[in-house]
Amino acid sequence: MKKSRSPSHKNTHPPLLEFENVTVMRGKIKVLDSLSVTIEEGENVAILGPNGAGKSSFIKTIARELYPVQSDEPVTFRCRGREVWDVFAMRSHLGIVSNDLQYNFLWDTTGREVILSGFFSSIGLYNRVITNEMEKRTRKISTFLEIDHLLDRHMNEFSSGEARRFLVARALVHKPNTLILDEPTNSLDLHALHAFRQILRKIARAGTGILLVTHNLQDISPECSRVILMKDGKFCRDGTKAAMLTDEIIGGLFSVPLHVREEDGWYYAIGY
Question: Of 141, 152, 236, 254, which has the fewest Cβ atoms less than 10 A away?
């Protein structure tokens, strides 16, 4: 698939992400295969694909946990126009919630400490100096995400949905322009899923771009206007939500016959 770019955004500043011919190896396994894509800052984009498609590796590459290999073809690997970036220095542009972040926090960590740790990109505070401004921002973002009543409780007291919201709050303390979410609804029951989806809509409506990586069709909110499909380490299709989320295309992506149903801007796969 050729590198694509959203036609709806005016290019008045460098793209948030610009990849061209990006290949990533983990040992002898090629997890990303010549990826080419451009994502503008402020876009609401969903990357959809089956397990093992390379979605989490794509997030790890953005976070500079993985790096592209050398290639005979020209390779572009930029964040906001920079070939080399410090992910900590990019926090005002990117907030990342990885799939395994929740399990890195100790069970006796309070919700307040989880959010405050976002100021230091740490797991825990470790005697860090907390300013009044940090405390105010923590209270403000926890109120916005409707978890302020849980600030003094510990991680082992939270439901999966509550813990997930604290990780989102941690990612938002620097007011990033884009929030990147890796499989954010894993392990959530129906009630927690409903609450979390409403929170993501609230974030998007407040002006923060959402880059959502998921294998669940039902995670893609009405605010996501663009869907990129991923399989076998490649981006195989890229287009509007209505064009991408069809019976034939999604059935082919997941190798199963199904019917895609749309309801109030949400899409569901049924009949499989």
Answer: 152
Dihedrals φ, ψ of 26, to 5°? -120, 100
Q: Indicate the residue type of 238.
A: D
pTM, 2 dp? 0.90
> Hey, where are the domains in the chain?
106-169
Would you give the end-to-end CA distance of the chain in angstroms?
28
Look up residue 235 and give its two tokens: 């981006």
**Residue 164: its H or E element:** helix 160-172
CA–CA separation, 260 vs 262, rounded Å?
7
3-state SS assignment for residue 269: strand
Reported as a single tens digit per residue, the pLDDT across 81-101 is: 877 666 666 666 789 998 777
Distance CA 55, CA 229 (A): 10
Residue 54's alpha-carbon distances to 46, 62, 158, 240, in angstroms, are: 14, 13, 30, 21
Within 10 angstroms of residue 148's Cβ, the number of other Cβ atoms is 16
Residue for token pair 């410090």: 86
Q: Are 62 and 56 in contact (CB under 8 A)?
A: no
Angle between helices 160-172 and 132-144 (to 10 degrees): 130
Q: What is the pLDDT of residues 177-203, one digit of tens each?
A: 999 999 999 889 999 999 999 999 999
- Given a contact cutoff of 8 angstroms between Cβ atoms, the answer to whether 122 and 104 are in contact is no
Residue 235 β-bridge partners: 230
Three-class SS state of 33: strand
The helix/strand/coil state of 231 is strand
Work out the number of other CB atoms within 10 angstroms of the CB of residue 258. Answer: 17
Cα separation of 105 and 183, whole Å?
18
